[in-house]
Design brief:
With 83 residues, the chain is mainly alpha-helical. The protein is built from 1 helix and no strands. The radius of gyration is 36 Å and the shape is rod-shaped. The termini are far apart. The model has no long low-confidence stretch (mean pLDDT 90).
């Protein structure tokens, strides 16, 4: 009779340990997925910042070109009026 409770206890402890091992594997898988998601978010943020930077630069450059064209048109009109 003394062996029977020990066997039940050992079996329960082994079951608990097996379940903990399953949880460890699942947590490892979740950690990897979170790491992958973190990397994807960082990549997206970098891409977005770069894209916005290019668009802002193009917009500034476009504005500068429009101003230069307007200045050239005014100069042309002044030259044409003076002749």
């Amino acid at each position: 009779m003394a062996e029977e409770p020990d066997n039940i206890l050992l079996r329960l402890l082994r079951d608990i340990r097996a379940k903990q091992d399953e949880h460890d594997k699942r947590f490892d898988a979740h950690d990897k997925r979170f790491d992958d998601l973190d990397k994807a978010i960082e990549d997206w943020k970098e891409t977005t910042a770069t894209g916005v930077g290019f668009a802002a630069h193009a917009n500034i450059r476009n504005g500068a070109l429009e101003k230069e064209i307007a200045d050239l048109k005014r100069r042309k009109d002044r030259i044409e009026r003076s002749h």
